[in-house]
Amino acid sequence: MSRKGNFWDNAPMESFFGHFKDLAENITCTNLTDVKEEVDRVIEEYNECRYQWRLKKMASVQYRDHLLVV
Asked: Is position 2 within any domain?
């Protein structure tokens, strides 16, 4: 929960949900099980396949593994 009137507190979550909406294919979901599977798929893709400049052009999981080795 962010403080009242301070939108910077909520910026990381707004960024994640913006990317989530871009990656999700909600048209194919017809029931709650499909929605859960789609959410799991999108989060896996976000963490394991989406490369980020600030993480040395690595996906989140790759960067974490890189830091654990070093």
From this structure: no
pLDDT of amino acid 14? 84
**What residues contact residue 62 under an 8 Å CB cut-off, 6+ apart?**
48, 55
* CA–CA dist 24, 65 (Å, integer): 26
Domain of residue 27: give its range.
Answer: 9-69
String of DSSP letters for 2-23: PPTT-GGGGHHHHHHHHHHHHH
Question: Is residue 1 assigned to a domain?
Answer: no
Which position has the higher pLDDT, 7 or 16?
A: 16
CA distance 29 to 38: 8
In this prediction, residue 1 carries a pLDDT of 55
